[in-house]
Amino acid sequence: MSFAIVSDTSCNVPMKMLSPEDVTLVPFSYYPKGNESDLMQCIDIDSFDGKRFYDEIKKGTLYNTSQVSPGTYYDCISEYAKKGQDVLYVSMSSGISGSYNSSLLAQKMLREEYPDRKFYMLDTKAASLGEGIILLKAIELRKQGLGIDECYNRLTELSKCMYQVFTVDSLKHLQRTGRLSNAAMIIGNLLNIKPILMGNEQGQIINIAKVRGTKNAIKNMAERYDRFVVDPGSQIVGIAHSDNQEDTDYLIDLLNRNNPPKEILSVCYEPVTGSHVGPGTVALFFLGDENVRANR
After folding, report:
1. Based on the structure, what is the number of domains in the chain?
2. Which of 117, 121, 176, 225 has an alpha carbon within 20 to 30 A of 188's alpha carbon?
3. Are 129 and 203 members of one domain?
4. Whether pLDDT at 178 is above 90
5. Is residue 56 domain-resident?
6. Are residues 128 and 202 in the same domain?
7. Which of 206, 184, 195, 194 is CA-nearest to residue 296?
8. Which of 159, 180, 201 is where one domain is finished?
9. Terminus-to-terminus CA distance in the chain, angstroms?
């Protein structure tokens, strides 16, 4: 292959789609709060028992996540460099994780040791299938014969077009991990107000609207899809949920009514990202125009 592609487990793409394409995932880790020595990883979401994990959270078990070290990135990517390959790393958003910065430190070490090789670290400014859809596009472009430079440039532009919108069953998990203020959490939980959140231009999570009730939140997301999606018949649309198949099915039905996409890839959130958004979350990922992240 012309170059290697590496991503991380927050991309939420099942390994059955990645293994035939020789894509390696850097594992993110999580652990029960207060027990950092009990690190766990989820390499393939197809083998992840989402119902059990999110039931544990509902019963009071909280999970924290740990940042990937530069050494982990170095160890993974250097294996390709040793074989004479350039490497494109498709990363989770720097706006919500420090892991991208760790990859940049690894990049510096790799360039010093392998000066004849290219190492591109792509900040998708996305998470879950927002990152995953960019990863799948990277595979497609490589198959088309594009070199690593052009692929990186195209994906950088494509990342600007990724619209990420989601709603959560409870605001407390976002508040606990610093995503929302405590006041917003209290008001939302008391009044059954569901926040509509999105990834902005910097890949940070922001609250763009509030609606009453889960069904209205799902409708709001579908309406945004109808307004902002570009050429849906040619793209894969992603839905990630935290053990919430009922509302996911409702969203799929709404998406298919007016602007059905070529394909809908629906997955359960892996535990690292899922521990931040909490049980019941439903998230939608699709491509719009280059200014779509500015749409509120």
Report:
1. 2
2. 225
3. no
4. no
5. no
6. no
7. 206
8. 159
9. 40
Q: CB–CB of 261/133 below 8 Å? A: no
Q: Residue 41 domain-assigned? A: no
Residues 188 and 120 both lie in one domain: no
CA separation for the pair 30, 211 (Å, rounded): 31
Do 174 and 168 touch, CB atoms closer than 8 A? yes
The residue count of the chain comes to: 296
What residue numbers bound the domain in which 183 lies?
162-294
Q: Which residues pair with 286 in a beta bridge?
A: 163
What residue ranges in the chain does DSSP mark as E strands?
3-8, 23-26, 29-32, 40-41, 63-66, 86-91, 119-123, 162-167, 193-199, 205-212, 236-241, 263-268, 282-287
Is-above-0.85 flag for pTM? yes
**Dist CA 264 CA 237 (whole Å):** 5
- For 250, the token pair is 């409702």
Position 183 scores a pLDDT of 54
Residues with Cβ within 8 Å of residue 261, at least 6 apart in sequence: 229, 232, 233, 235, 236, 237, 255, 286
Q: Is residue 55 part of a domain?
A: no
Question: Band of the pLDDT at 177, cuts 50, 70, 90?
Answer: low
Q: Which residues pair with 89 in a beta bridge?
A: 6, 121
Question: How confident is the model at residue 227, as a pLDDT?
Answer: 98
DSSP state, 160?
T
Q: Which of 107, 132, 159 is the last residue of a domain?
A: 159
Residue 73 lies in a domain: yes
Report, as an integer, the average pLDDT of 70-99: 96
What phi, psi does 171 have (nearest 5°)?
-80, -10
pLDDT digits (tens, 9 = 90+) for 226-270: 999 999 999 999 999 999 999 999 999 999 999 999 999 999 999
Q: Are residues 125 and 212 in the same domain?
A: no
CA 188 to CA 184: how far, in whole Å? Answer: 6
Report the number of secondary-structure helices (H) and strands (E) in the chain.
11, 13
